[in-house]
Specification:
single chain; 5 strands; Uncharacterised_YqcI/YcgG
Amino acid sequence: MTDPRAELEEFIGTKEFSCLGARSALKRGSIEHGHYPALGDPESARANYRDLLGYARGIRPTLSDKSFRTFVATFETPGEVLDEQVHERLLWQHLQLMHDIDSRTYGLDDGATSDPDEPNFGFHVAGHAFFLVGMHPGASRASRRFVRPAIAFNSLMQFMLLGEKFFSMQDAIRKREATNNGSVNPSFTEYEYQMPSRHFSGRMTEEDWKCPFTSRHEASSVKYTSDVMQRPAG
């Protein structure tokens, strides 16, 4: 049996993999990893949630403008090359199962919402909001074409604490993506920060795409606009 953790570390080290934050986390030994039987399976979702819950509860004191931390879940099945739409369906099915557990006890992070149509959407665990990166063997983008289904859970607070460095890192990642993979992911160039949920699976979504996720949290009392994460002027 192959070692999913070793596969993950090897993939992060390839030239096709563009995320510099993950590469830094690998060097610092700050990648938490969990491996589960099947993406979208209720038992796997519960196990993934238990592990991520412990991670989310302890993450805040560890974050700073110099920190790069992530939790990566990998899955044994489906092992075949997935159609991007099938992967997207399984990914959101998995996340819905996790959210349905979490929302019984925990609420929203400050400044974030569980409404997938909003620009400040985050996937919440223990009141902490995450931006997710889905990977799988059938991904159209080489930077997300991992040998097995996987989800990277990245803290939104970590992005905020980076401040201006976030945008510098973003520029470097996109240059790397263009050099090694021929272009920047069109999902980001088309939708940028309008609707983060569009980016989770890695598939270029249709203009009328509706996120297959239902928030169990009460709506945020603050209405955020699409400039919530925009680069400052000047």
